[in-house]
Design a protein that fits this description.
There is one protein chain. This protein is mainly α and 425 residues long. It has 3 domains: 59 residues, no CATH class; 176 residues, no CATH class; 149 residues. Helices cover 72% and strands 1% of the residues. The protein contains 18 helices and 2 strands.
Length: 425
């Protein structure tokens, strides 16, 4: 066990999710301001490279290679799109385009570095618990921001932060903006819910029930309509355990708690919650109000994106260039990749999605042990939430997503191996 490697591996998700705000950015000579996550990542890279030099055998599983290959191919197709658009003179902003290539390269390194180090150090379960701990901190800070918005003096003086949209009462907890918080909770809340069923004592079950209810409240107070995409699967492990006689009390308390929380939140005269349910947006149709954000919201952005894609269908208009053309972000990872990297990039992106779906399927049937199986289902549902979230938001550039995919691959490979060994015995 290399203590330095293990320490950095545990600190990377904390830097990515708990220290995500702009105020934690660090100024580096020649590079300007960068996130604390990037600083931690570059500090950890020498340790990883030293380990590779000492042990050149890259022993990783099939799922790891599939995801890693997809990510490095995405970096390659982004670079190809940049080169072609540079030759045709249609690339508007070279800096933001190159940033995308660098990002995918870093995602590949972060994913591969995390999987290899945690696997070799046998820290998969500890890494899983780090994510649960981070979720608690994010939820508590989100709750503190909610209380600050209610005008409670202690919280109002300490938790009105720059990442909140005070006009509509929208919180973002430890993240730069609301969408990142929704994406994060969509990933982790199914695991929180599965642990309600797994916990063996009453205190543990109540702890996870409270954590889940905090997470749902925080989701709605983001004011983001995409919350509606991730909430159903976030509570799905409870519904999957309804027939489990041993879990009947936990299931009943959870359902009752969520029901009462729902009634309380809906009755609140809060602009953020009203926005989630489409009461503060334009457009007449229910889908326009709840998902698209009105006739001038996502629908307009996506229609413009397709128009620009038609001008360069094979290699796209260049990474991060749609914003340069229309002044708005794509609000869909799928449309973003198709428009900016063209069909060539979209095919590679689909390969990445298929790899993630493969991880989901293996997690779903992992382990004969009930606890392992339920944890696997929680992680799988988190990945499905991520795939759904990307239909109406762009999450391909969120660092923590690839750290979570690494967690899922680690859990998948560790316990599928355990199951195979158990079968042989």
């Amino acid at each position: 066990m290399k203590k330095g490697d293990g320490l950095f591996i545990m600190l990377l998700p904390m830097a990515s999710m708990l220290l995500n705000r702009d105020i934690f950015n660090v100024r580096i000579p020649f590079f300007g301001y960068t996130s604390l996550f990037m600083v931690m990542f570059f500090m950890s890279m020498p340790l990883f490279l030293i380990r590779l030099m000492k042990n050149r055998k890259i022993a990783v599983g099939k799922r790891t290679l599939q995801v890693a290959f997809s990510l490095i191919c995405m970096a390659g197709v982004v670079l190809l799109s940049i080169a072609i658009n540079s030759l045709t003179g249609t690339l508007i902003n070279y800096s933001t385009a190159i940033d995308s290539f660098i990002s995918y390269t870093i995602f590949f390194l972060v994913f591969f570095f995390t999987v290899k180090t945690v696997s070799e150090s046998n820290l998969t379960d500890e890494y899983y618990r780090v994510w649960l701990f981070i979720t608690l901190i994010v939820n508590l800070i989100g709750m503190a921001q909610i209380l600050a918005l209610q005008g409670i003096p202690f919280f109002e003086s300490r938790f009105i932060w720059e990442n909140m949209k005070l006009g509509t009462g929208r919180i973002a907890s430890t993240f730069r903006w609301q969408g990142m918080l929704v994406a994060f909770l969509g990933l982790v809340l199914p695991s929180i819910t599965s642990n309600i069923i797994i916990s063996k004592n009453t205190v543990g079950k109540l702890y996870y029930i409270i954590n889940l209810m905090l997470g749902i409240a925080v989701l709605l107070f983001t004011g983001s309509r995409t919350s509606l995409l991730v909430i159903p699967l976030s509570i799905a492990p409870i519904l999957l355990s309804i027939k489990n006689k041993k879990a009947i009390k936990a299931v009943s308390v959870s359902i009752m708690g969520l029901f009462l929380l729902g009634i309380y939140l809906v009755r609140l005269d809060n602009n953020a919650i009203k926005r989630v349910f489409g009461m503060h947006s334009t457009g007449n149709g229910i889908m326009q109000r709840m998902v698209y954000g009105g006739a001038t919201g996502r629908q307009w952005i996506w229609s413009q994106a397709f128009k620009y894609w038609e001008t360069a269908p094979l290699f796209g208009i260049g990474a991060n260039q749609l914003f340069e053309y229309i002044g708005m972000h794509p609000h869909s990872s799928y449309i973003q990749v198709l428009t900016e990297q063209g069909l060539s990039g979209f095919i590679i992106f689909l390969i990445l999605i298929i790899s993630i779906i493969g991880v989901c399927l293996q997690l779903w049937k992992n382990g004969s042990n009930n606890a392992i199986n339920l944890r696997g289902k929680g992680l799988a549902l988190g990945l499905v939430n991520f795939l759904l979230y990307q239909f109406s938001a762009s999450a391909v550039n969120y660092h923590f997503v690839y750290l979570f995919i690494a967690l899922c691959v680690l859990y998948c490979e560790k316990y599928s191996v355990s199951r195979e060994q158990h079968t042989k015995e």
